[in-house]
Amino acid sequence: QEVVSEQSEEESNGVNLMEFSDEILLHILSYVPCTDLVLNVRRTCRKLATLCLDKSLTHTVLLQKDYKVNKDKVKQLMRDIGKEIYQLNMAGCYWLPSSTIDHVTRCKNLVKLNLSGCHVTSLRLSKMLSTLQHLRSLAIDVNPGFDASQLSSECKATLSRVSELKQTLYTPSYGVVPCCTSLEKLLLYFEILDRSREGFMLSGQLMVGESNVPHYQNLRIFYARLAPGYVNQEVVRLYLAVLSDRTPENLHAFLISAPGSFAETGATKNLLDSMARNVRLDALQLPKAWINGSGLLQHLKFNNPFYFSFSRCTLSGGHLIQRVINGGKDLKSLTSLNLSGCVHCLAPESLFRKAEDDIDSSILESLVVSCCNLRHLNLSAAHHHSSESIGNHLCQLLSRLKHLLSLALPVCSITDVAANVEKPPTTPNLVPQTFGRKVRIGIQTYPRNLGDQANQKIESSVFWALMGSLRFLETLEIIGSSFSSAMPRNEPAIRNSLPPCVRAQSVGDSEVAAISQLTYLQSLTLAQLPNILTGSGLINIGLQCQHLRTLSLANLGMMGKVVYMSALMDMLKHCKCLRDLRLEQPYFCAGAQFFQALSHCSSLQRLCIVSRSGTLQSDAVMSFMANCLEVIMCHMFMGESLTVCKNLQQSIVRSFQAERPALNVVIFPLLHEDLTEVIRDVPMRHLDEITLFKSRVAEEPPNLWW
């Protein structure tokens, strides 16, 4: 009786949720997925029934990562609030059958619609768009079999009013671009493979009868991102051909992201010359071959630039300061800068310079002073070695950028110069990087308590100070300058990796511990940190960075042994918000202890493990999938046999597919010759966001799409 009376007293003194004001309740409800609001929460009481249908909650419906939504839920949702929806995002809902799109026709007032990654035929697209007369923004995929001649006149009328189009191409085609006569923003993603499944070489020529006259006269933003392959290059040239004839007067953002070599032609040169004469840009990204060795940047005019990407260009720091920043011009408008792979961007000239030479701190200082409002900065994939000058270390200069939200750095750039100078060439703490006979070494004991770590050395390091000054950083990437993933896009798995930079040899546990100062950190990538001995810094991150959602670790410490496994398992027990985990490490053992620790990550949705000669325990994987109900993606590329991989994959699908409609499972031998064929079937959302390793900081302009 005493216990009951105490409970009733607590309840009487507690706060009733329904006593909050409508404004507060609406704010709380805005964090609940729309499907739950309309199909579940709305039915709890009269007050919530009214609030859940408030315009602020039904105006924009986001289904793009609602992995529990199915066809029936979408049907009921559209039936209940279809007329109230003005913006609908179904991007990446690959698990929904194409017939689900038919229910979108109930949303008569739609203004923005994102169907990227959804299965949509040209006939279904025609039927749907014919009813959406208010549509102004559209994102779709163009798959093999798409036929623009099947689009009705009503559909084309709707497309003629669309001002924003995002189109992902899996086949050579103009898609719906020729029908969009009022385009102001055009985003193109080229994902066309060079070979068919049968092994035939594909051509970049468009289908016979397709219009070749896209309407670019009102274009303000042109963005094209190419996957590797020559067919993608051939097709994008056809899109650019019209631009080269007449450059839109209002063009203010021109961005082309192309891997590898994408040669400049006469048509593209005419286009760039026309742009230099007629437009003032706010955002620019070009293939490296179009910039290297040319005076293009000297002639282009900029208005209030907010995004620059010179990724993989041989642009020197001198040219960067003179031609882009105009000798220190105030560029407070610039919020995002990508200099990934731009090996000479912090040196005055590149003609006689080696990539490993020290940087010129005055160039970086000019950059920091001129672009003081930078929020996203990528300096990865290059050797940025600081000199011994006091106060001019790269980390010390970057600490002035107080607005940074995302940052990517090479491992060799964060090491203390003094520490490298004082340390003898060979130290007992360096870990051998070869796969040969192991050398027994003395393991330095690192305390797991953050305070003890600080007392040893890290509080005095320049990297510790940098992390302390960037308190609001949300995304951090520390990647070895010579690191390459074992699983590239359209090629067989890489069997050998390059050794880390000599300057990076001292970067290890203490530097990782320094990252734990980033209280608001949401995404962390660490790759090729050679001096990881115990991984103790990971535990500090797990304890302090409670907002961490994405974690990617690759090639840490000794290559022949996973030396940080114990620390990783301790870390995972504290990562309650972790949603995406990617691990790439040779000889990784995905056993019962690992999956038991991973089961503490109650929010985990996606797991990817890439391990040459790695092993797994099938029973442990099945138990993990049963315990972690939110997991909808399990990708493992290990050293197990094809039979073991196939049996486990089939068991997972058979056991959990029914209750997890979005479940995507790929378990396959990493070095198998058919790996590329398996990869092509992975949904683009997972492939692009987690399965393939890449630097994502400043990869594209902020807020480019939804």
UniProtKB/TrEMBL annotation:
InterPro entries given in the database record: F-box-like_dom_sf (IPR036047), F-box_dom (IPR001810), FBXL18_F-box (IPR047948), FBXL18_LRR (IPR045627), LRR_dom_sf (IPR032675)
Regions crossing the membrane: none
PROSITE patterns: FBOX
Annotated F-box domain residues: 14-61
PANTHER family per the UniProt record, alphabetical: F-BOX AND LEUCINE-RICH REPEAT PROTEIN 18, F-BOX/TPR REPEAT PROTEIN POF3
Gene from which the chain derives: Fbxl18
An example Gene Ontology CC term for this record: SCF ubiquitin ligase complex
Protein name: FXL18 protein
Top-level taxon in the UniProt lineage: Eukaryota
GO biological process, one term: SCF-dependent proteasomal ubiquitin-dependent protein catabolic process
